[in-house]
Amino acid sequence: MTRFDDRLARLPRLGVGISAEPESAHAGTDAVKLREQAPGLVHFLEFGTDLARGLDEHVRRWAALGLPTTYHFLDLNLAERVDIDEVWLRRTATRAREIGAAWLCGDGGLWHFGPRERGHEILLPPILCPEAADEMAEAVARVEAATGLAVLPENPPAPLYLGELHILDFYARVAERADCGLLLDCAHLAMFQRIRGHGPLDGFDGYPFERLIEVHVAGGTPVDVDGYQVVEDSHVPEPLPETWTILEHVAARAPNLRALVYECEKNPAEACLANFERLNQLFPPP
After folding, report:
1. What does pTM read for this prediction?
2. For labelling alongside 134, which of 34, 143, 246, 269 has CA 20 to 30 A away?
3. What's the rounded Cα separation, in Å, for the pair 14 and 17?
4. What superfamily does domain 3-282 belong to in CATH?
5. What is the dihedral of CA 222, 44, 85, 53, to 10 degrees?
6. What count of Cα atoms within 13 Å lies in the side-chain half-sphere of residue 286?
7. Which residues touch 128 (CB under 8 Å, ≥6 apart)?
């Protein structure tokens, strides 16, 4: 049995979840209240944070009810082996287990330059080349081995991507080298496809759908920057049409899919209910 097979056997099916970050419940949607107001629409909470900010009362209230969570780190450069230190590994694993997280996940790129400092969160994508994919694979494998938790690398958003590989081929290589699962952000992929001039479903030939454990969906805002057309990862309520196309394509082909996260935490709950209903039809609860 491979490491991935062993991890997969222990990963629960979580259903449709909502994202959250420290203090996001005060500015947008409180997941606990949403669950009370609209039973059956939200099944788990994905909490994104870093060591500097830690856990907030929102995720603690959710976890205290015995409800499922995942831990999305916002401070580790998966693109750099040297960024993985013992302090980060120990404290992150402790916090993830404190809220009962089913696994770890995070954008596979660069969250900071130089030493890890509070408030960096620049989030740059990796250079899309084989060498960078191999280094990320080593990083993922090390975090999994040290924490005992599955690690799902996510394709990050960007206004520009460097390197010759299609981003789907890059993460397919990471998964194969690390023998790990994957997180596909459909909104981020829609950005990449637009920037590179691809159709929404280009590049899936050879993608390891059997390794896809989690998917994200979120709204994006097209913007013009001095004539350069990009999509801002704004997390507004309504995803772009391409994002829906990608989501429906992968959901029908991923036999081991365990979780679907709607990243809408910055918005009032009532603006997101219709999409939560649509997502539950697409990916029924466990």
Report:
1. 0.96
2. 246
3. 8
4. Divalent-metal-dependent TIM barrel enzymes (3.20.20.150)
5. 70
6. 16
7. 161, 162, 163, 164, 165, 166, 167, 170
